[in-house]
Amino acid sequence: MRWINLVLLFFAGLIIYADKQVIGFAAEPLMKEFSLNSSQWGMIGSSFFILYIVTSLIGGTWSDRIGTTKMIFIVLAGLSIIQFGSFAIIGLPMLILYRVLLGAVEGPMNPIGMSHIAKIFPAELRGFAVSVFIAGASIGGIVCAPILVGLIEKLGWKGTFVSLGFVSLVLLVIWVLVDRSKNKQNVKANQFQKLNWSDIAPVLRNPACLLTIALSAVSYWLIIWVALWAPVYLIKVVKLAPMKMAYTISGTGMVSIVLVFLISTISDRLFKKTQSYRLARVWVACISTIIGGLALAIIPLVGNSIQWIFVALCVAKGSTYVNVSMAVQVMIKLMPERAGFMAGILTLGNNIAQLAAPIITGILVQAAGANLALGFNYSIYVMVGLFLLIAMLNLLIVRPDNVKETNASEEMTA
Q1: Residue 405 domain-assigned?
Q2: Most Cβ neighbours (<10 Å): which of 66, 212, 226, 395?
Q3: Rounded distance, CA 372 to CA 232, Å?
Q4: How many structural domains are present in the chain?
């Protein structure tokens, strides 16, 4: 039954991606309808993460108490309600409110899904399992991009938002039916014990925790850039037609999925052989990130050559998105009895990056004035610098295999 659970999580990830990504595909009609500039568009992108940050931590922690399956029900029901309410959007304030509420509902999904996987899969299969969950988002890009663009052209952006609400409702019904027919397989809550600061402080102070969060967070910086700004970049700078832009993003998503599965499989096999989180998770993630950062740095150098941009995005996305799979395993290794909480802390760091990234990108693009290409180049090189710096620090410092000994020494000293 663990594989059926994983398939359902995959589709949940796909829908979550579509709900988050659709705003990027609707960028041109929305910016035109509400007369938005780049800074305002960046603010809309960031507004999604205002409550997303809070609910990701609360939802992950609560999943330890009430169970991951119940929390998934809550998320899918909330998505349907918020999307159905999109007809009420009549201006910038309502659009921002819609994004804030959508982010609040979606926030718990990542930590819940990762905690769910940690509970039902052994360590040597978690890299692949988490990658399947992540692939829901990437395949969402492949499947949903042309569909969403087509729906926006035919139904308008409001009709498309509402359509996504119906899809969430359908998946919720499927989850309920599967849960009722297979309720013995439902992942129940653990025996809940109150979290004490004295228990979690040593873990949060550990460099392995802080740098793992940072590496995952900078990967999410690229994720939100692709979701929110890549459509604008490809249309306005590279001069692609909307549908060609959609197929380009879909294609990069397809290739990146293959890379994520390949790298995750290598990591799992290395872990099975060595039982070392440093070698199998940290080193694999960092080397991949350096490769991805260098690939991303090529984009400003190739002008409007869509072929080279396509290749660079494929490598950059595939090589850095795998950090999400690697990071959650390191975080849960630090405190396995609180998988939901640790996944929530990781998601909190990711969300802070996603909150800051659209604003910073918007400022950089706006600062370049009429030269949009220059503004986007600035935003790309910021990501490249962060990838290389944080990956090198992880390579030098992060040693998750020593965490038990470190924490024990701190307790004895205390």
Answers
A1: yes
A2: 212
A3: 10
A4: 1
